[in-house]
Amino acid sequence: MIWVVALGGAIGASMRYLAGRLAIRIGVSDFASVTLCINVLGSFLMGMAAIWLVRRGVGNAQLSLFLTTGLLGGFTTFSTFSLDLMRLIEEGRFGLAGGYASASLVLGLGAIFAGAAVARTIFT
Protein backbone atom coordinates (compact mmCIF):
# COMPACT_ATOMS: atom_id res chain seq x y z
CA MET A 1 0.00 0.00 0.00
CA ILE A 2 2.90 2.36 0.52
CA TRP A 3 3.40 2.70 -3.23
CA VAL A 4 -0.16 4.05 -3.53
CA VAL A 5 0.58 6.77 -0.96
CA ALA A 6 3.97 7.49 -2.55
CA LEU A 7 2.46 7.83 -6.02
CA GLY A 8 -0.29 10.13 -4.74
CA GLY A 9 2.24 12.16 -2.76
CA ALA A 10 4.50 12.59 -5.79
CA ILE A 11 1.58 13.78 -7.90
CA GLY A 12 0.28 16.06 -5.13
CA ALA A 13 3.69 17.63 -4.48
CA SER A 14 4.15 18.19 -8.21
CA MET A 15 0.72 19.83 -8.37
CA ARG A 16 1.68 22.09 -5.45
CA TYR A 17 4.88 23.12 -7.24
CA LEU A 18 2.99 23.86 -10.46
CA ALA A 19 0.27 25.78 -8.60
CA GLY A 20 2.96 27.88 -6.95
CA ARG A 21 4.58 28.61 -10.29
CA LEU A 22 1.19 29.52 -11.76
CA ALA A 23 0.45 31.86 -8.85
CA ILE A 24 3.77 33.64 -9.39
CA ARG A 25 3.04 33.88 -13.10
CA ILE A 26 -0.31 35.57 -12.52
CA GLY A 27 1.21 38.03 -10.06
CA VAL A 28 0.85 36.46 -6.60
CA SER A 29 4.39 36.88 -5.37
CA ASP A 30 3.92 36.71 -1.61
CA PHE A 31 4.97 33.21 -0.49
CA ALA A 32 2.39 33.12 2.31
CA SER A 33 -0.47 33.96 -0.09
CA VAL A 34 0.51 31.10 -2.39
CA THR A 35 0.63 28.60 0.49
CA LEU A 36 -2.68 29.88 1.86
CA CYS A 37 -4.42 29.45 -1.50
CA ILE A 38 -3.01 25.96 -1.98
CA ASN A 39 -3.99 24.86 1.52
CA VAL A 40 -7.51 26.30 1.26
CA LEU A 41 -8.04 24.62 -2.12
CA GLY A 42 -6.64 21.37 -0.72
CA SER A 43 -8.99 21.60 2.26
CA PHE A 44 -11.95 22.10 -0.07
CA LEU A 45 -10.90 19.08 -2.13
CA MET A 46 -10.34 17.03 1.04
CA GLY A 47 -13.92 17.77 2.11
CA MET A 48 -15.19 16.67 -1.28
CA ALA A 49 -13.02 13.54 -1.26
CA ALA A 50 -14.13 12.55 2.23
CA ILE A 51 -17.82 12.69 1.31
CA TRP A 52 -17.26 11.05 -2.08
CA LEU A 53 -15.39 8.17 -0.44
CA VAL A 54 -18.10 7.74 2.20
CA ARG A 55 -20.82 7.75 -0.48
CA ARG A 56 -18.87 5.12 -2.38
CA GLY A 57 -18.74 3.02 0.77
CA VAL A 58 -14.97 3.52 1.21
CA GLY A 59 -14.63 -0.01 -0.03
CA ASN A 60 -11.35 0.74 -1.74
CA ALA A 61 -8.69 1.49 0.88
CA GLN A 62 -6.08 2.06 -1.83
CA LEU A 63 -8.17 4.76 -3.48
CA SER A 64 -8.74 6.45 -0.14
CA LEU A 65 -5.02 6.38 0.71
CA PHE A 66 -4.09 7.62 -2.76
CA LEU A 67 -6.50 10.58 -2.66
CA THR A 68 -6.31 11.72 0.97
CA THR A 69 -2.95 10.75 2.43
CA GLY A 70 -1.06 10.78 -0.86
CA LEU A 71 -2.44 13.27 -3.38
CA LEU A 72 -4.01 15.85 -1.06
CA GLY A 73 -1.43 15.29 1.67
CA GLY A 74 1.30 16.00 -0.88
CA PHE A 75 -0.57 18.97 -2.34
CA THR A 76 -1.19 20.76 0.96
CA THR A 77 1.52 21.27 3.51
CA PHE A 78 1.59 22.23 7.13
CA SER A 79 5.37 22.43 7.10
CA THR A 80 5.38 25.11 4.39
CA PHE A 81 2.73 27.01 6.33
CA SER A 82 4.96 26.82 9.41
CA LEU A 83 8.00 27.98 7.43
CA ASP A 84 6.08 30.90 5.95
CA LEU A 85 4.85 31.86 9.40
CA MET A 86 8.37 31.66 10.83
CA ARG A 87 9.67 33.93 8.05
CA LEU A 88 7.00 36.52 8.74
CA ILE A 89 7.74 36.49 12.46
CA GLU A 90 11.51 36.70 11.89
CA GLU A 91 10.93 39.68 9.57
CA GLY A 92 8.99 41.38 12.37
CA ARG A 93 5.74 41.30 10.39
CA PHE A 94 3.71 40.22 13.40
CA GLY A 95 0.35 41.55 12.24
CA LEU A 96 0.67 39.78 8.92
CA ALA A 97 1.83 36.61 10.70
CA GLY A 98 -1.23 36.65 12.97
CA GLY A 99 -3.54 37.35 10.06
CA TYR A 100 -1.95 34.58 8.02
CA ALA A 101 -2.27 32.04 10.83
CA SER A 102 -5.88 33.06 11.52
CA ALA A 103 -6.84 33.09 7.84
CA SER A 104 -5.26 29.68 7.30
CA LEU A 105 -7.28 28.17 10.12
CA VAL A 106 -10.59 29.89 9.39
CA LEU A 107 -10.44 29.57 5.60
CA GLY A 108 -9.12 26.00 5.71
CA LEU A 109 -11.88 24.90 8.04
CA GLY A 110 -14.47 26.78 6.03
CA ALA A 111 -13.17 25.21 2.83
CA ILE A 112 -13.35 21.65 4.12
CA PHE A 113 -16.96 22.20 5.23
CA ALA A 114 -17.77 23.85 1.88
CA GLY A 115 -16.19 20.97 -0.01
CA ALA A 116 -18.20 18.47 2.02
CA ALA A 117 -21.40 20.43 1.38
CA VAL A 118 -20.75 20.57 -2.37
CA ALA A 119 -19.95 16.85 -2.43
CA ARG A 120 -23.13 16.01 -0.50
CA THR A 121 -25.08 17.86 -3.19
CA ILE A 122 -23.24 16.30 -6.12
CA PHE A 123 -22.82 12.74 -4.84
CA THR A 124 -26.31 12.05 -3.49
TrEMBL record:
One of its GO terms (biological process) is cellular detoxification of fluoride. Na(+) is not transported, but it plays an essential structural role and its presence is essential for fluoride channel function. It catalyses: fluoride(in) = fluoride(out). GO terms for cellular component: plasma membrane. It comes from the Bacteria. Its main location: membrane. Keywords: Cell inner membrane, Cell membrane, Ion channel, Ion transport, Membrane, Metal-binding, Sodium, Transmembrane, Transmembrane helix, Transport. It is found in: Cell membrane. Pfam families: CRCB. GO terms for molecular function: fluoride channel activity; metal ion binding. The chain crosses the membrane at residues 31-53, 65-83, 103-123. Fluoride-specific ion channel. Important for reducing fluoride concentration in the cell, thus reducing its toxicity. Belongs to the fluoride channel Fluc/FEX (TC 1.A.43) family. This is Fluoride-specific ion channel FluC. The gene is fluC.
